[in-house]
Amino acid sequence: MQYPYDISVVVPLYNEEESLPELVRWIKRVMHTHEFSYEIILVDDGSTDRSWEVIEELSAEDNTVKGISFNRNYGKSAALHMGFERCAGEVVITMDADLQDSPEEIPALYDMIKHQKYDLVSGWKQKRFDPLSKTIPTKLFNAATRKLSGIQLHDFNCGLKAYRQLVVKTIEVHGEMHRYIPVIAKWNGFTKIGEKVVKHQERKYGTTKFGLERFVYGFLDLLSITFVSRFKKRPMHFFGTMGTLMFLVGLGITVWLIVQKLFKLYADGRARDVVDQPLFFLALVAVILGVQLFLAGFLAEMVSMSSNKKNEYLVRDRVGSVKA
């Protein structure tokens, strides 16, 4: 397949007016040195400074620079989604606009996608220039993501990544899911995921736009993406299993209480009423919850089946006369 460009560079940004001219010049210099055909897509996520005016000036000077501006701040995932939707390069590079990601890494990342046939390559900022308040939570976040996803990456949230175009045109990034693009890619069948040590530059302009709350939201998003990825097409496997187990536990406790009462009545003629025991009400709650979970799984299965679309299944390639 022929692509208009070798590389599309997608840069989400928010209030980065000072760094944009230097970043674009740096990217251009690298592209010209290695003779790549390219486009630079700058996605302004509702900046309140002069970022959009700077993008317009850069685009007027060179038509390889393209800009998209949001009406308000939607978040990095939305910016990446829009950039992925508009890009046309064979290899797609994402990087942050704050000059902490080095464009000098682009040729090596391109080679890993183009010639080593990786689906996705994630940067690893092995040596970081961030405070401990940021690096320690990042290490914990990455360890949890490795454990739950099975993907052995050191830095899931590194903004510097490279993709085959098919990957970015297939995956959906929304909410705060940009942290888990490798996980989303894996669940969509793109399993050749690599890693490259990249340089981490000290921030030259402005301040970071992210706070510690992103780690709390990030963990919740991880649970969400793991659940949806595994059970989106088979919700009954989750809800039905949990419901059946709870129902059987509740039923088992109830039967045991009844048998215990009958045994005591037979032995000495006296026994405590089943309904006088707190354990009976716990068993009753377990039975009710079990039935509700099973019904939830049943309804979710019906919704999943009714909403299935023919084009939700990714075809890798075709040969011969097989029609799309």
TrEMBL record:
Cited InterPro entries: Glyco_trans_2-like (IPR001173), Glycosyltransferase_2 (IPR050256), Nucleotide-diphossugar_trans (IPR029044)
The keyword Transferase appears for this protein: yes
Domain of life: Bacteria
Membrane spanning residue stretches: 238-259, 279-300
Domain Glycosyltransferase 2-like: start-end pairs: 8-169
Keywords, comma-separated and alphabetical: Cell membrane, Glycosyltransferase, Lipopolysaccharide biosynthesis, Membrane, Transferase, Transmembrane, Transmembrane helix
Example GO molecular function: undecaprenyl-phosphate 4-deoxy-4-formamido-L-arabinose transferase activity
GO biological process, one term: lipopolysaccharide biosynthetic process
Gene Ontology CC annotation, any one: plasma membrane
Protein name: Glycosyltransferase family 2 protein
Organism the protein comes from: Pontibacter fetidus
